[in-house]
Amino acid sequence: MITKRIGAVEEEVGELLFVRSTRRLELTATGREMIPLAREFLSSYERIVNATMHGTRELSGSLRIKAPISFTVHFIGEVLNEFLHEHPKINIDLQLTNRPVNPLTENLDMVITGLPTSFEGVDEVPLCPFRRIVCAAPSYLERMGEPIHPSDLQNHRCLLYSYVEPARVWMFKSAQAGNIDVSVNGQFHSNDIEAMHCAAVSGLGIAILPRYRAQASLQKGELVEILGLYELPDLWIKIQRPSHHNKSLLLARLTDHLVSRVQHIQQRHPSL
C-alpha cells in the first residue's frame, strides 16, 4: 500500500523519490530535497484540520517530543498527563534524554531542554527558570570541611555535569566581588541529574543541583546547602519547535498548557 502511494506521488511529480530494494526504501537526492516541503504541507494540513475542529471537536494528532529526564520526572510528566486527559484524541511519543537535540534533524515536533544550545530554523519559547544550589552531604563536609569561598572548591572533590560547558569551571557572582570563575576537579562525571543527586547524597563530593531536585534531601538532612552568599546564574528551561510548525494549533495549545501549568507549580512551590 505504501509503495503504491509513493509510486503515485512519483508519477505526479515526474521524479524518482526513492530507490527501492527488497529490504528497504532509500531517498534519492530529489526525495531529500522534498522533505522540508512535505513537512510544511503536513503542518499546513494539520492547521486546516485543527482550525476546522476548533470550537466543535477535540484536537487530535500525534506529537513527538524529547525532554530532559529529571525535569520530566518532577514536572513535565505530570503536565503532559493532564493535557492527554483533556484531549484524549492526541497521541504523544515522549523520549527522555539530557543531550542537546535538534528537532529538525531528529524529526521532532518539540524539544524541552535546559541547555543553552540553539539551532537555525528552530523557534524557542521560554518555559521557566530553574534555580541551582551548591550542596553536599553532611558526611562529606565532616570529612573534608565546608568551603567558605568559591575558590575553596579547588581543594574539594566536585561532581561534574557533562552537558554544561565548561564542566570544570563553576561560575558564581556576588554583589561585592562580581563574577567569580573557579576551576574544579572531581572523580565523578555524569550526564544525568539523578545520578549526580545520588552521588552527592552518598558523600562522594560537592554538586551543583537544581533546587527542585535537592529540596527533599535538604529537608531530610541528606544534603546541606553551602556557599549561599554566592549566586549561581539561573538557567532556563525552554521549548524548541521547528519554525515551520509555528502555526500549528496543536503545538500552540500544548505550549500554552506547559507554560501555564509549570508556572503554576512554581508559584505553589516558590522555593523551587
Which key features would you list for this structure?
DNA-binding; 7 helices; 14 strands; 272 residues; 28% strand; WH-like_DNA-bd_sf; transcription regulation; alpha/beta; single chain; D-Maltodextrin-Binding Protein, domain 2; three-stranded antiparallel β-sheet; 2 domains; LysR-type_TF_proteobact-type; sequence-specific DNA binding
Assign a percent range to the helix content: 25-40%
Q: What low-confidence regions span 5 or more consecutive residues with pLDDT below 50?
A: none
CATH third-level topology of the largest domain: D-Maltodextrin-Binding Protein, domain 2
> Could you give a short account of the major beta sheet?
5 strands, mixed
Q: How many distinct folded domains?
A: 2
Number of strands: 14
Order of helices and strands: HEEHEHEEEEHEEEEHEHEEH
Tally of DSSP helical segments: 7
Gyration radius from CA atoms, angstroms: 23 Å
Give the class-level CATH name of the largest domain: Alpha Beta
First and last CA, distance: 52 Å
In CATH, the architecture of the largest domain is 3-Layer(aba) Sandwich
Mean pLDDT: 84
The coarse overall form would be: elongated
Sheet with most strands: strand arrangement: 4-3-5-14-6
What's a concise summary of this model?
The protein is α/β, with parallel strands linked by helices and 272 residues long.
What does this structure look like?
Helices cover 37% and strands 28% of the residues. It is α/β, with parallel strands linked by helices. It has 2 domains: 58-130 and 236-268, 3-Layer(aba) Sandwich (D-Maltodextrin-Binding Protein, domain 2), CATH 3.40.190; 132-233, D-Maltodextrin-Binding Protein, domain 2, CATH 3.40.190. Helix 3 crosses helix 7. The mean pLDDT is 84.
